[in-house]
Amino acid sequence: MALIREDDFIQSIADALQYISYYHPSDYLHALAAAYAAEESPAARDAIAQILVNSRMCAEGHRPICQDTGMVVVFLKVGMGVRWDTKLSVQEMVDRGVHRAYTHPDNVLRASMVSPPIGERRNTGDNTPAVVHVELVPGEEVEVRLAAKGGGSENKARFAVLNPSDSLVDWVLRTVPTLGAGWCPPGMLGIGIGGSAEKAMLLAKEALLDPIDIHELRARGAATAIEALRLELYEKVNALGIGAQGLGGLTTVLDVKIREYPTHAASLPVAVIPNCAATRHVEFRLDGSGPARLAPPRREDWPELTWEAAAGARRVDLERVTREEISAWQPGERLLLSGRLLTGRDAAHKRIVDLLDRGEALPEGLDLSGRFIYYVGPVDPVGDEVVGPAGPTTATRMDKFTEPLLAQTGLVGMIGKAERGDAAIEAIRRHDAVYLIAIGGAAYLVAKAIKASRLIAFPDLGMEAVREFVVEDMPVTVAVDSRGESVHRSGPVEWRARIGKIPVVVE
Asked: 358: domain range?
C-alpha cells in the first residue's frame, strides 16, 4: 500500500507549476514549428516566430512564457489503495503547492486569483485557491495532471445544449469566429461532448491536457467517428483563415482534442474551450517513493530560427509622435516604439473613468494627453530585471472605457492584444487615435524592450496599477488605424478567401 507523504505531494505540485511556467510541452513546440514552416501570411509568420523565440528565451532564463501565469487547474486520480501521511485535505495540499510555486523567489509568478468573485474582488496574493477535481480509481498511485490556464483563453469557453439532430461541426464553425483573437491562437481546441452541462465542460478542459498528435492522425487516417470528427474540425477551423493572433493565416489551431460521455436521449451538450499560445500543462505519478521528477525538454525541441525586430519595421519616438504621423500608419504595419508609455488594465480604467464622471482630477502624475497606454499586468521582476514578463492583455475588456478616455484625456493610442469591438473602433476613428497590438505569448521577449518602470497611480491594485514604462524598440503591429480600419477584420477575410474551402460572406 503506497504512502504519499504530505511534503512530497506539495513539492511536486510546486515543482510542476514552476516547470510549466517556463517550459512549453515538446509536442506543442514541434507543432508550432511545423506551422511556422508552412505559414504564408507574413504577419502570422512573424507572430509565430516571436512566440517560438520567446519560448526558447523563457526556457533558458527560467522565466514565465506569459505574464498571465494562469489559474491552476488540477485533475487528480487517487488510487483507492493509497494512504496519506498528512492531516491536510487534498485541496489544502494543492494550495500549499500553488503558494510555494507562485512565491518562489527565483521565479515569482503573477497572482491573478481574486476573492470574492463579485464585489471587492481582492487579489488573494499567491494565486490560491486552485480548481481541483478528484476521482477515486483502483490502484496504489496518485496521477496528477495540472495546467495553468490563462484568463484570455479561459474567457472564451463556450457551452450549448444542441438538439441531437443538430450539426456539431456547424456549431463549432459558428462559434470559433465569435471568440476573436483574445485566446491567442494558434493553440488547441478542447471539445467535450455529452454527459450533463458540467460534465461537458470538464471533458473539454481535460481534453486540452492530451498531447498534440493531429499530424500522426492525418498520416494514418481516422479509425473512429471521433477521430474523423477531429480531422474535419481541424481542417475546417483552419480554413476560417483566422490565423496567428487573429491576423489572418493558414494555422488557427494546432489540434482539436475531443472527449465524449454518454448523455440523455433528449440532449446533446457540447463545450469548447481553447488553449492559448502559452500552452502549459504536465502530468506525473506519485507512488510513495518521493516527489515527482520532471525532465526538461531537449534543446533540439526548439527550431533553429532568429527573429529580427527591425526587419521592415517603422521606428516611432513616443516623445515626439503626432496625430499627423499616426494618420500615416497602415493596418498590419510593424512598428518599434521607443520612449515613455503608461500602463493600465480593467481596474485602473474603471477608476480613471469614475474620476472623470465625478469631475475630479486624476492622480498627480497621471497625464494621458498625447500618450499611449499599454494594457498589461506584468510579472514582478527578479534579480536585476526592470520588470518581469509583460505581454499584453485582451483589449476588448477596455472597449467600454475607450470613448471617455479618448474624448476627455487626450490619449492618442492604445496597445493590447486581440480585436476591438465596433464601439471602440468608432471611437478610435472619431478621435484620430490608433490601436496597436503586441504578440500574446511573447511576454518575456516584450519585457526585454522595457528599460525602466515606475509606479504612477493606484498602488493598491498590484499588477493592475498604473505604471510608466520607458521602452526601446518595443515591437507592435498596427491593428486599428486612425480611419477605423481593423486588421482583425481584413486579415481573416483575406486568408479565408485564399484558402478557399469555406465561402466568404460579405456583409
From this structure: 314-492
Mark whether 383 and 460 lie in a shared domain. Answer: yes
Residues 254 and 342 in one domain: no
Q: Is residue 91 part of a domain?
A: no
Reduce the DSSP state of residue 294 to 3 states and report it.
coil
DSSP code string of 85-132: E-SS-HHHHHHHHHHHHHT-TTS------EESTTTT-EE-SS-PPPEE
Place of cell 485533475: 75
158 and 236 fall within a common domain: yes
Q: Are residues 264 and 358 in the same domain?
A: no
Q: Is residue 346 part of a domain?
A: yes
| pLDDT tens across the length of the chain (507 residues) | 799 999 999 999 999 999 999 999 999 999 999 999 999 999 999 999 999 999 999 999 999 999 999 999 999 999 999 999 999 999 999 999 999 999 999 999 999 999 999 998 999 999 999 999 999 999 999 999 999 999 999 999 999 999 999 999 999 999 999 999 999 999 999 999 999 999 999 999 999 999 999 999 999 999 999 999 999 999 999 999 999 999 999 999 999 999 999 999 999 999 999 999 989 999 999 999 999 999 999 999 999 888 888 888 999 999 999 999 999 999 999 999 999 999 999 999 999 999 999 999 999 999 999 999 999 999 999 999 999 999 999 999 999 999 999 999 999 999 999 999 999 999 999 999 999 999 998 999 999 999 999 999 999 998 899 999 999 999 999 999 999 999 999 999 999 999 999 876 544
Do 323 and 256 share a structural domain?
no
Q: Could you tell me if 336 and 211 lie in one domain?
A: no
Closest by CA to 449, choosing from 137, 181, 57, 127, is 57
CB 110 within 8 A of CB 380: yes
